[in-house]
Specification:
Blueprint lengths: L9 H23 L6 E2 L18 E4 L6 E8 L4 E8 L5 E7 L8 E7 L4 E8 L5 E3 L6 E8 L2 E9 L14 E8 L16 E8 L15 E6 L3 E2 L5 E9 L7 E9 L8 E8 L11 E3 L14 E7 L5 E2 L4 E5 L7 E9 L8 E2 L2 E7 L5 E2 L1 E7 L6 E2 L6 E7 L1 H7 L5 E9 L4 E10 L2 E9 L10 E9 L4 E8 L8 E2 L10 E7 L4 E8 L1 H14 L12 H7 L4 H13 L2 E7 L37
Parallel strand pairs: 21-25, 26-36
Antiparallel strand pairs: 1-7, 2-3, 3-4, 4-10, 5-6, 5-11, 6-7, 7-8, 9-10, 11-12, 13-24, 14-23, 15-18, 15-22, 16-20, 16-21, 16-24, 17-19, 17-22, 26-35, 27-34, 28-33, 29-32, 29-35, 30-31, 30-33, 36-37
Helix pairs in contact: 3-5
Length: 614
């Protein structure tokens, strides 16, 4: 069979040439036409499929340090949907908004607004392990409105909590890491976009909030502003600023019933979080101080101001106490001195900016029925508990045992209404669960996307009643893949903690209910691992626990045996009174609580994901 006729006419060649050219043009035009799954913004009809929630949006947070991006949102628990409104102060060629496990730009769930040079598009997208962006075949973000206003360009859209799309982020209880980016040039195709090549950032929020109305404040409520006046924010990225506030002398007992942030206008994107601590009543005098919390020359007595009164983080709302309870302030047994700690996040290294931010306490002299209290759950601050190096996931658990709650709680128990989770830099998740009769009864608080950079007091959706004889287990998840040495427990930021500060009523004498593995069993572990690795000259007991951990030969076996030890060995209990003394009883070599039934949470029908409820 002849493929080419040597007598082919010029006319035939011409026809073949233009046919091939036409086919090439069709291919090129098709590659540049509008993405089939995206929404062309100019063709949007202002008729949403469902009625809009009441505006303005009740929750909002600035995303970037310049305040160019602001995210606001509302929640429909009835429809399991979240409405988002994104304001872009100066829109150029587009913007990226997304969510990922810990704020990574890779493997992120995205929504993108971009222009091709002639038209603008909106679409659900995702990034791969290299940060390359692709349009999602399943479009789960529904664009409701897009318009230019005097304050900037506004996008209003919604999506379900769970989309049943494996490329999408599951919106659930706890911290949500919001990533954002700005597009400075048109995109002929979304596949041209790589997040590693544009200006991006991350912000953290609690996306799902209780939808119950706040309690009414009493008519005789008074306010007290605990602020650091006229601070010149240092021209560095991270600053922790400490300030000592003195309460009036001989202040009678009051109840704090609400508190909220007081942010100096213009600094909303720099003031990252704020905490107020009460100093120990045993310290009769704390010197005045306004300066860096990390200053080595700061007064040593600031270290005795550790009792949390209030905590706020960017995007948090005002915090209300339940109608029957208030947090005591003033009166016998309290301290006159409060330590304010303000975290400034200044990545743009802005200089000369003055700030007087802090916390406004709302208090009443009309005491409520119950004093509220704060109790520490989890692990004791000790190097006895450690996380091996190079771990993708490692768990540590702290126990508040039935023996301690039976000893210290009143017959009707206590009622937990809020909590503040806490780890240091290696922490990735925290979960506190209530166990009764060997069965997990309910989750007190859980955050599987936890970040030490976003710690605030979180109101529980449902008040949890803890009875005498109940067990509270706080389990923390850690990642040490970037560390070559073991991470021990302690106060240093490179050491670790596993804590849940629960807020409850009525206040009891039980202030700390925590544990650590029995030290004698840990020494047996050191002996065994050293001998296993051929080191018969173990110095166990002769040097510190921290040094013993660092001298071990760490491999998969050493980590697995340590994990087994923590999950089987007896524990030492710290069942402490407010005086820091143990309650009477034997608290050493206590058996681990037995859990025979694990709590099953409600699931989304499509993917087995937890189902949030109001």
């Amino acid at each position: 069979m002849r493929i080419l006729n040597k007598h082919l006419r010029l006319q035939d060649v011409t026809i073949m040439y233009f046919t091939a050219l036409a086919a090439l043009m069709v291919i090129l035009v098709a590659s540049y036409q509008a993405p089939t799954n995206a929404v062309e913004v100019s063709s949007l009809k202002p008729k949403p499929s469902n009625p809009l929630p009441p505006l303005p949006m009740p929750f909002r947070v600035p995303l970037d340090p310049r305040g160019q991006l602001q995210l606001a949102w509302n929640i429909s628990y009835a429809n399991q949907e979240i409405y988002m409104e994104l304001r872009v102060a100066d829109l150029r060629h587009g913007v990226v908004l997304g969510m990922s496990d810990q704020g990574e730009l890779t493997n992120a769930d995205l929504v993108v607004l971009w222009d091709s040079g002639t038209k603008s598009y909106f679409g659900d997208a995702w990034s791969d392990s290299e940060g390359r962006v692709s349009l999602d075949s399943q479009q789960d973000y529904e664009l409701i409105e897009a318009e230019q206003r005097a304050e900037g360009f506004y996008l209003l859209f919604k999506r379900p909590f769970s989309t049943c799309d494996p490329r999408d982020y599951l919106i659930e209880e706890g911290t949500v890491h919001i990533i954002y980016g700005f597009l400075d040039q048109p995109l002929t195709s979304l596949e041209q976009l790589n997040l590693s090549r544009i200006h991006t950032g991350v912000q953290r929020v609690l996306m799902l909030r209780p939808d119950t109305p706040p309690p009414t404040l009493p008519p005789d409520v008074q306010t007290l502003d605990v602020v650091a006046p006229n601070v010149i924010i240092p021209n560095q990225e991270t600053t922790y600023w400490c300030f000592i506030h003195r309460l009036p002398e001989n202040m009678p007992k009051n109840h704090i019933v609400m508190y909220e942030s007081v942010i100096t206008p213009g600094n909303e994107a720099i003031v990252h979080h704020i905490e107020v601590f009460e100093c120990s009543p045993d310290v009769r005098e704390v010197p005045d101080y306004s300066g860096s919390c990390d200053d080595k020359m700061k007064p040593g007595k600031l270290n005795f101001c550790r009792h949390v009164l209030a905590a706020w983080a960017m995007g948090a709302e005002a915090f209300y106490y339940p109608p029957d309870a208030g947090l005591p302030m003033g009166g016998p047994g309290s301290s006159r001195f409060l330590r304010l700690e303000v975290h400034y996040h200044n990545p743009l290294i802005i200089s000369g900016r003055s700030d007087s931010s802090g916390i406004r306490l709302h208090y009443t002299p009309s005491l409520r029925r119950y004093d509220a209290g704060i109790m520490e759950l989890g692990l004791v601050y000790t190097p006895i508990m450690a996380v091996p190096p190079k771990q993708h996931t490692f768990y540590l658990s702290g126990y508040c045992t039935s023996k301690c709650t039976q000893t210290a709680l009143p017959p009707g128990g206590i009622h937990i209404f809020a909590s503040q989770l806490h780890t240091h830099l290696a922490g990735r998740g925290v979960r506190t669960v209530l166990v009764r009769g060997g069965k997990e009864l309910e989750i007190v608080q859980e955050d599987q996307h936890f970040s030490t950079h976003y710690q605030t007091i979180r109101v529980l959706r449902k008040i949890v009643n803890v009875l005498p004889g109940d067990v509270l287990i706080t389990k923390c998840t850690y990642n040490t893949e970037d560390r070559s040495q073991p991470t021990v427990g302690g106060f240093g930021i490179m050491e670790e903690m596993c804590v849940n500060y629960i807020h409850y009523y009525p206040r009891t004498q039980l202030e700390l209910c925590k544990s650590h593995v029995d030290p004698r069993y840990l020494q047996k572990y050191f002996n065994f691992i050293n001998r296993f690795h051929g080191n018969d000259q173990c110095v166990c007991g002769e040097v510190s626990v921290t040094e013993q951990y660092s001298q071990l030969q760490w491999d998969a076996f050493s980590g697995e045996v340590l994990d087994s030890l923590y999950n089987t060995a007896p524990i030492s209990m710290h069942c402490n009174q407010s005086t820091a003394r143990l309650f009477p009883g034997d608290w050493e070599k206590q058996p681990l609580p037995v859990v025979t039934s694990i709590l099953e949470k409600p699931r989304y029908p499509c993917e087995g994901a937890p189902l949030p409820t109001s």
